Amino acid sequence: MDLPESLFRPESAMWVIFLEAGVALALLLVIVWATWPRRREDDAEKGRTSRDE
Predict the structure, then answer these.
(1) 3 in a domain, yes or no?
(2) What values do phi and psi take at 31, rounded to 5?
């Protein structure tokens, strides 16, 4: 399968930069979601946060 030459010219390779930025953003969101502190069950019932201790 031959790819067209125009795909690799600097002016048309912008899709690679957008793809990389999208993957980096998705990775950032996954890391933040995975490390976000979870509420404990008893605190959720009382409406408390981790800062109320």
Answers:
(1) no
(2) -65, -45
For residue 4, being part of any structural domain is answered with no
Task: Please provide the DSSP assignment of 1-53 as one string.
Answer: -PPPGGGGSGGGTHHHHHHHHHHHHHHHHHHHHHHSPPPPHHHHHHT--GGG-
Residue 29 belongs to a domain: yes
Question: Could you tell me the residue range of the domain that residue 20 belongs to?
Answer: 10-52
Gap between the terminal Cα atoms of the chain: 62
Q: What digits encode the pLDDT tens for the residues 8-50?
A: 676 677 888 999 999 999 999 999 999 998 877 776 667 666 6
What pTM was estimated for this model as a whole? 0.56
Residue 37 covered by a domain: yes
CB 3 within 8 A of CB 16: no
